[in-house]
Amino acid sequence: MGNQEYGPPPSGEPIWTGAQPLAGERGPTPPSAYPPGSLPVSASPAAYPQPYAAAYPQPYAAAYPQPYAAAYPQPYPQVYPPQFGATGTDRNWMGTASLVLSLVGVWLLGLIFGILGINAAKSGRANNRAMSIWGVSISVVSVIVIVSMVVILSAGNRSLFGDRVSYSELAVGDCVQEPAGWVDGGSDLRAPDVTRVSCAKVHWGQVYYLDVLGGTDYPGDDAVQASVDDLCYSDAAAANVDPEHLDQVAVFYIMPTADSWLYGNRYVICLASDARHTLTESWVVVPKPTVA
To answer: Residues in the chain with pLDDT < 70?
Structure first.
């Protein structure tokens, strides 16, 4: 083999056959193949890299961003946007018209314009909604009152204030309100009827005597006046007045006129009252009917 420890192997010999040398013999030991678990003498200890320094990054500082300031935007004002190029008050006239019409008695138009005004306020075209509401309310209440009165009047021709009757329907003891067209300076009455009320309410007068003038032709104003005086101040008429109030009675009467005479209205109605026409009780003693 020669004295060279390491050298090129003879031609045709493998570098390492894997056979173990005998005891005391030294066989070739290729540097590239060592027995497991052994190192060559000339080999330096394994210089493994040191572990990385424990220089881990520190956690982020707890510097969280501050919460946003509670500065929320203010809510939008409750103003509805005008529509169709409106200015916001171009329909205010509806509420004004509703209130005015309802106050002057044109309730149907007041109700219509009031509803239109409320709708205009909702759409932002008017700012007087309260005026429209007042117009609607007045119109509705007025219509209800009028309808109620018509219903009451139609029930037997009676009303909350009394019932309307013709003069021929009056009887001794009936209390009436002031006849239409009456003047204290005269007793010339042309109204066809009168309002009869309860004697417990304030009334204008109370019938205490009734009669009918006879004759075919109208005797004239003076003659009629004299006949009426005789009837209303007669003892028969005075007997129908309560003696307790006989000296307090103010006498009023209704007598026929030349025109009413032609139509058969010749009634004489004698009325008792006080000077101010403010009686609230009966001053008349109703005569008892005679038995035939």
So the answer is: 1-88, 153-162, 183-191, 288-292
Q: Does residue 172 share a domain with residue 145?
A: no
Contact between 284 and 242 under an 8 Å Cβ cutoff? The reply is yes
Could you give the CA distance from residue 51 to residue 61 in angstroms, rounded to a whole number? 27
Question: Is there a domain that residue 125 lies in?
Answer: yes
**Token digits of residue 94:** 């509806």
Q: 198-216 in b/e burial notation, b at 16+ Cβ within 10 A?
A: ebeeebbbbbbbbbebeee
d(CA 165, CA 203): 15
Asked whether the beta carbons of 92 and 128 are under 8 A apart, the reply is yes
Q: What does the alpha-carbon distance between residue 249 and residue 58 come to, in Å, rounded to a whole number?
A: 120
Which residues share a beta bridge with 158?
Answer: 163
Q: Give the domain range for residue 268.
A: 162-273
pTM of the model: 0.47
Q: Tell me if 206 sits within 8 A of 279, measured CB to CB.
A: yes
Structure tokens at 150: 């018509």
Q: What is the DSSP letter of 274?
A: -
- Round to the nearest angstrom and report the end-to-end CA distance of the chain: 190
By three-state DSSP, how is residue 246 classified?
helix
